[in-house]
Amino acid sequence: MTEQKKITLLEAVNLALHRAMVEDDNVVMLGEDIGVNGGVFRATQGLRERFGFKRVLDTPLAEAMIAGVSVGMAAQGLKPVMEIQFLGFIYAAMEHLVSHASRLRNRTRGRLSCPLVVRSPMGAGIRAPEHHSESTEALFAHIPGLRVLVPSSPARAYGLLLAAIDDPDPVIFLEPTRLYRMNPQVVVDDGQRLPLDSCFTLREGQDITLISWGGSVHETLQAAAQLEQRGVSVEVIDVACLKPLDLDTLEASVRKTGRAVIIHEAPRSCGVGAEIAASLYERALLDLQAPILRVTAPDIPPPLYRLEQLYIPAVDDILEACDSTLNYA
User: Fold this and answer.
1) Is residue 132 flagged as an active site residue?
2) Which of 96, 100, 131, 132 is catalytic?
3) Domains, the chain, ordered by start
4) pTM of the model
5) C-alpha to C-alpha distances, 184 to 6, 12, 124, 207, 290, nearest whole angstrom
6) What is the mean pLDDT of residues 226-231?
7) Does the pLDDT at position 1 exceed 70?
8) Which pairs from 109-113 meet CB under 8 Å and 24+ separation?
9) Among 23, 25, 138, 160, whose Cα sits 20 to 30 Å from the Cα of 271?
């Protein structure tokens, strides 16, 4: 019988990477300090000792090189999992991800694919300096050919990462740093994949739908619990896969409740929340009993750590939006 124990999201990522490398010799890891040091957050700890330096490669501090080499590996049948230390460092790799990884299948009319996974921490909340707190998931969600995943629990991190590594096309896998060691839960190392392109309904309710992903799921669930104490029946949906969106699940929930608030840590303008809102208006306008509201970070770069808690959407911000929606005449 498989042993069960509570682990963190960070440990779940490590567990999934171990499982993937055991199951498939074509899975390789590369990134800055991922081998000897086990990565900046120790997500790859123990991999080099178990699988050797030929499958767990320490690279120079060169994100463009890491991405370029990974695309080449993927085109030749390997399954590279590349780590970018922080999302704010990924921009040097965008040329390869946008111009090559995302287009390889279409460019070759299916003769080549790009089974590449890009892992990167994302988001604020760990008191890190500038460029260490980015939430720029919308940049990747806008690119055709890229799948974008953001787990918000250990179990979803484990199952989604294994599924991402199986995917024959490129996946951006963003790991919320402030959830890395928060809320451990039982994760069975059974290799079970979770479905890609699906939302996860974390709570069922009748009065209002709260839609979130990544780090903001934490505050969203806290807000939902407070609303429940006031007699409000709250449905909470973790989007998890930002591209492609599971709009059927979102639409069904909003048709049921008639009200929706979208919560995300990324800046407000042109965020994924705007795409979700527009899609729900197109699909379910006549079932809405109030305008869809968004609770987001402001349109400024992530601040230094002293201002992080003013930047990240807070529980009170979510409750204020919910009250406005619930009281809409």
Assistant:
1) yes
2) 132
3) 6-186 (3.40.50.970), 200-326 (3.40.50.920)
4) 0.96
5) 5, 9, 19, 29, 36
6) 97
7) no
8) 112/75, 113/74, 113/75, 113/168, 113/169
9) 160
